[in-house]
Write a structure and sequence with these properties.
It contains 18 helices and 27 strands. By secondary structure, the chain is an alpha/beta fold. A seven-stranded mixed sheet has the order 2-6-5-3-4-9-8, sandwiched between helices. A seven-stranded antiparallel sheet has the order 20-21-24-25-26-19-27. Strands 11-10-12-13-14 form a five-stranded mixed sheet, with helices on both faces. Helix 3 links the parallel strand 3 and strand 4. The chain is globular and about 70 Å long. The protein binds alpha-D-glucose-1-phosphate-6-vanadate and cobalt (II) ion. Alpha-D-glucose-1-phosphate-6-vanadate binds next to loops. It catalyses: alpha-D-glucose 1-phosphate = alpha-D-glucose 6-phosphate.
Length: about 550
């Protein structure tokens, strides 16, 4: 064991989901090591503990895993359970942490950000419940990282991570497990595989775009092998360190190949895609895109059709910027609906306390209490189960849903890589104007309320302030603005737009939202502050 002297980096502050930086930043001497030591510090040390370790396989994943193993050994960990080749999807890692009753896990991923030597890398810690570390712990990591003077590491050769089974590293057990097996077994307990298999046998067709990221092997095993979908149903199914140059973000912009196929003349019945680390999902019907907020609402209304959820839902939770579509379902079901800040870590307490069964975010994240992360493939399988049970198309299900609940027209506009000080000035100006907004008329709509969202966790009472500026109009329409906490370059403004309609369900969302979009630009003066008038990505 060696103790290495080091100097603190001043930028190791975890964001919405762990620490994300350019890969080359992580490749600097001591950068990864400092943060790993800070993680161990923040959780009261690694001594005698068991951890899960794996990542989405992006560039530097293989090197980082070896470093973390040597550091875990040097810090006295008892055992590390690693996915074969150092690879685990985020939901599979969450599942392993729970199944094996470990003390937590380290996940290497920058999720939906591109991968490669010149792209992004990330690391985060999940707690013993399988969920992302809460703010108190991520703040402790930052504090530890800011004052670090040394870290512990073992001098040893690389561990063979391709062979399943157990080996020893300086007295610590290293257990290499099949990355897919436990996860696939869990899915079989939740969904009616026989019914879905029968649907495929009867001619149902599907395309799953794994975007050259981590879900390829999971989707191939489950959808093609276990559920009997035709070979070739899963495309881009081999994970690559640079995701084959794809941007593994499952939205209509980046999953454009899938979108083109689903909107084309030979579209299959159902399409889906997932992100770099497998926790996000996009679902598309033949000729119809399902917005993530609508997907959450449809899943909540129909989850009882799948065997894992026949008891019904205890409650639902959504992030604040996610549309209120799921709230209407909750009201109808007579269950609690929670509104949390952006980021999956805020769902953990509600899931642990049994108050929420289903959770979701507008950013293509949906999940349930089966793990403590959002879970892309899980959402796709629940959709398949619902399609098999209802024997209707995606379009029919969506239309029936809107008929019953009304439609929350919804869109998110992202303005990427804005100069950070300009983005901050814009948000500051808007914040300062909030008290004067109620009563004001913009684009023919009257503002009913305006605030900066603050969340008090109903389970532990912790408060998270300044989680996004909201402007609510008298007709129920809404604008939300916040700056991204996952980017690695400048600032990204996320502008969330919502408008409820009781009739007229087949409008183009951009057109239905046009007055709200204009109001947002007017209120925040996005163009004046940033020079941008058009978003880079629309979801
Ligand atoms: C984004 C999304 C948020 C999501 C987070 C992590 O955060 O908006 O909903 O939880 O990414 O997802 P931000 O701060 O950039 O808006 V993942 O799949 O990147 O772990
Ligand atoms: Co992700």
């Amino acid at each position: 064991m060696t103790t290495i002297q080091t100097v603190a980096f001043d930028d190791q502050k975890p964001g919405t989901s762990g620490l994300r930086k350019k890969t080359r930043v992580f490749m600097q001497p001591h950068y990864l090591e400092n943060f790993v030591q800070a993680i161990f510090g923040a959780i009261g040390g690694a001594k005698g503990k068991t951890f899960v370790l794996g990542g989405d396989g992006r560039f530097f994943n293989d090197r980082a895993v070896q470093v973390i193993l040597r550091m875990a050994a040097a810090n006295g960990a008892a055992r590390v359970i690693v996915g074969r080749g150092g690879v685990l999807s985020t939901p599979a890692a969450s599942n392993l942490i729970r199944q094996r009753k470990t003390d937590g896990g380290i996940i290497l991923s920058a999720s939906h950000n591109p991968g490669g030597e010149d792209e992004d890398f990330g690391i985060k810690f999940n707690m013993a419940n399988g969920g992302p570390a809460p703010e108190a712990i991520t703040e402790a990591m930052y504090r530890e990282a800011s004052v670090i003077v040394s870290y512990n590491i073992l001098e040893a050769q690389d561990v063979d991570l391709m062979t399943l089974g157990e080996s020893s590293l300086g007295g610590m057990a290293v257990e290499v497990v099949d990355s897919v097996a436990d996860y696939a077994a869990l899915m079989e307990t939740l969904f009616d595989f026989d019914a879905i298999r029968a649907m495929f046998t009867a001619g149902f067709t599907m395309r799953f775009d794994a975007m050259c990221a981590v879900t390829g092997p999971y989707a191939t095993e489950i959808i093609e092998k276990r559920l009997g979908a035709a070979p070739g149903t899963v495309v881009h199914g081999t994970p690559l360190p640079d995701f084959g140059g794809m941007h593994p973000d499952p939205n209509p912009t980046w999953a454009h190949e899938l979108m083109a196929e689903m909107m084309g003349p030979d579209a299959p019945d159902f399409g889906a895609a997932s992100d770099g680390d497998g926790d996000r999902n996009m679902v598309v019907g033949r000729g119809i895109y399902v917005s993530p907020s609508d997907s959450l609402a449809v899943l909540a209304a129909n989850a009882h059709l799948a065997k894992g959820y026949t008891r019904g839902l205890a409650g639902v939770a959504r992030s604040m910027p996610t549309s209120a579509a799921v709230d209407r379902v909750a009201e109808d079901l007579g269950i609690e609906a929670f509104e949390t800040p952006t980021g999956w870590k805020f769902f953990g307490n509600l899931l642990d306390a049994g108050r929420a069964t289903l959770c979701g975010e507008e950013s293509f994240g949906t999940g349930s209490d089966h793990v403590r992360e959002k879970d892309g493939l899980w959402a796709v399988l629940l959709w398949l189960n619902i399609l098999a049970a209802r024997k209707q198309s995606v379009e029919e299900i969506l239309n029936a849903h809107w008929q019953k609940y009304g439609r929350n027209y919804y869109s998110r506009h992202d303005f990427e890589a804005i100069e950070s000080d300009k983005a901050a000035a814009m948000v500051d100006a808007l914040r300062a104007a909030l008290p004067d907004l109620p009563g004001r008329e913009v684009q023919g709509m009257v503002i009913a309320a305006a605030d900066d969202f603050s969340y008090t966790d109903p389970v532990d009472g912790s408060v998270s302030a300044r989680q996004g500026v909201r402007v609510l109009f008298e007709d129920g329409s809404r604008i939300v603005m916040r700056l991204s906490g996952t980017g690695t370059q400048g600032a990204t403004l996320r502008l969330y737009l919502e408008r409820y309609a009781e009739s007229g369900f087949d409008r183009d969302p951009q057109e239905a939202l046009a007055p709200i979009i204009r109001a947002a630009h007017e209120l925040a003066d996005i163009g004046g502050h940033t020079g941008r008038t058009e978003p880079d990505v629309i979801t």
